[in-house]
Automatic annotation (TrEMBL):
The chain crosses the membrane at residues 19-41, 96-117, 123-141, 148-168, 174-195. It comes from the Eukaryota. This is Derlin. The keyword Nuclease does not apply. Keywords: Endoplasmic reticulum, Membrane, Transmembrane, Transmembrane helix. PANTHER family: DER1-LIKE PROTEIN, DERLIN (PTHR11009). Pfam families: DER1 (PF04511). May be involved in the degradation of misfolded endoplasmic reticulum (ER) luminal proteins. The keyword Transmembrane applies. Belongs to the derlin family. The lineage of its organism: Eukaryota, Viridiplantae, Streptophyta, Embryophyta, Tracheophyta.
Length: 244
């Protein structure tokens, strides 16, 4: 059993493995009082006035108490982060990292701006950890890229992946969780989907082109297509060979 878990962990792509590890270590550290959540949560005043810039990152790593809700989000983080990185972003680790960076930036911006709007500031002030929202963003992006996959919710009913975010949002409301957290993830996910998939088809321009300095941080392995064994490949015909 332990060996199987170890193999499963080692086979995870780098971004998924790193994020999952950081989230689990941070949450366990807080549960054991090794780390204080008060040093991790998003606090704009401390970021700006006390230069505690790490809060812009650490608020995405803490998933609150280690309960059923924690296991629920770890499952979705491991599953959909892995599916995105291995399929939609296969061989494009830099682009996947940039997607997460974009989502984190959008979520942080929404909370900061929302905190300045009358009648909404009180609600946004309660959102001090955005880890769940970033996880929900990945679920939303995956559902948009795989809308026709058939899924089942707790074996009760089936639906296509396009409705997965809405099903999970309804479940959060039913169990009494804050809908704001999921809605923020959906907003960030839709912003990425629109700018990356819809807008380029409309205009021919890609506003979310990954910066070169981010690409320099990752060395992606080439995607190799294995040649079937015992199969001969005929040489190209003469008319298919061109000379300059």
């Amino acid at each position: 059993m332990a060996q199987a878990v170890e193999e499963w962990y080692k086979q995870m792509p780098i971004i998924t493995r790193s994020y999952l590890t950081a989230a689990i270590v941070t949450t366990i550290g807080c549960s054991l009082d090794i780390i204080s959540p008060y040093n991790l949560y998003l606090n704009p005043k401390l970021v700006i006035k006390q230069y505690e810039f790490w809060r812009l990152i650490t608020n995405f790593l803490y998933f609150r108490k280690m309960d059923l809700d924690f296991m629920f989000h770890m499952f979705f983080l491991a599953r959909y982060c892995k599916l995105l990185e291995e399929n939609s972003f296969r061989g494009r680790t830099a682009e996947f990292f940039y997607m997460l960076l974009f989502g984190a930036t959008v979520l942080t911006g929404i909370v900061l701006i929302g905190g300045m709007i009358p009648y909404l500031s009180e609600s946004f002030a309660k959102i001090i950890f955005l880890s769940n929202s970033l996880t929900f963003m990945m679920v939303y992006v995956w559902s948009k890229q795989n809308p026709l996959i058939h899924m089942s919710f707790l074996g009760l009913f089936t639906f296509t992946a396009a409705y997965l975010p809405w099903v999970l949002l309804g479940f959060s409301v039913l169990v009494g969780a804050s809908a704001w957290v999921d809605l923020l993830g959906m907003i960030a996910g839709h912003a990425y989907y629109f700018l990356e998939d819809v807008y380029p088809q409309m205009t021919g321009r890609r506003p979310l082109k990954t910066p070169s300095f981010i690409k320099a941080l990752f060395v992606d392995d080439a995607v190799v297509v294995a040649r079937p064994a015992n199969v001969r490949f005929a040489p190209p015909q003469a008319e298919e060979i061109h000379h300059d």
